[in-house]
Design goal:
Blueprint: E1 24-30, E2 35-40, H1 51-78, H2 82-87, H3 96-106, H4 109-123, H5 136-147, H6 153-161, H7 170-191
Antiparallel strand pairs: 1-2
Helix pairs in contact: 6-7
Length: 192
């Protein structure tokens, strides 16, 4: 979504309908409660009745929408007053109606309350995940494929939370050391 805006041809033929499972998503338009997709017929047949296809497209649309929303919020926050924002619209905003919607949304009390609540929740984290955007399960499968064995919970904790460049996050290292001491105590008690 970076760079210049591209013109997308729109085919308004009768084949391009929501009843036709062979459609192509060609543009994303943010709306108040959802991401609406403009669809048209295409030389590429994409069968949206297949679960994995529709899931992939939905996830791709959501990622695009989140990226655009983040970029627009960053632009909104960089300008001090609401009036100045309305005069200096972002290049991805095409109409005054879109700009008004975004200004109302970003200036709303609900968004500010949710943002503050999320900031408080993030401050309660004792350590940060170092695994990037992959899920814990994806990391687990990747590690098992490399080592060809299943890791213990402690080894898995280390693999996902220890950063190869900056070593340990302080809170994560304390938790890992606590787990190791508990394991050692348990092994010692089993020997006795």
């Amino acid at each position: 979504m970076a760079g210049k805006r591209k013109q997308i041809p729109h085919d308004s033929s009768s084949e391009a309908s929501t009843d036709n499972p062979l459609i192509r998503v060609v543009a994303v338009i943010p709306s108040s409660n959802m991401v609406a997709a403009i669809i048209s017929s295409s030389k590429y047949d994409i069968d949206l009745s297949l679960t994995h296809v529709s899931t992939y497209i939905n996830n791709a649309l959501q990622r695009c929408f989140v990226d655009v929303r983040h970029k627009l919020k960053k632009h909104f926050d960089s300008i001090p007053t609401l009036e100045e924002v309305k005069q200096n619209k972002h290049e991805d905003v095409t109409s005054q109606e879109e700009l008004n919607f975004l200004c109302d949304h970003y200036a709303s009390v609900q968004l500010k309350e949710r943002s503050n609540k999320n900031a408080i929740n993030r401050s309660h984290l004792t350590y940060n995940h170092k695994g990037g955007s992959k899920s814990f399960r994806a990391h687990e499968e990747e590690i098992e494929a490399k080592t060809e064995e299943q890791l213990s919970a402690i080894d898995y904790f280390e693999a996902v939370l220890k950063n190869t460049k900056n070593d340990w996050d302080k809170g994560a290292k304390l938790k890992w050391e606590e787990m190791l001491s508990m394991k050692t105590k348990q092994l010692f008690q089993m020997v006795l």
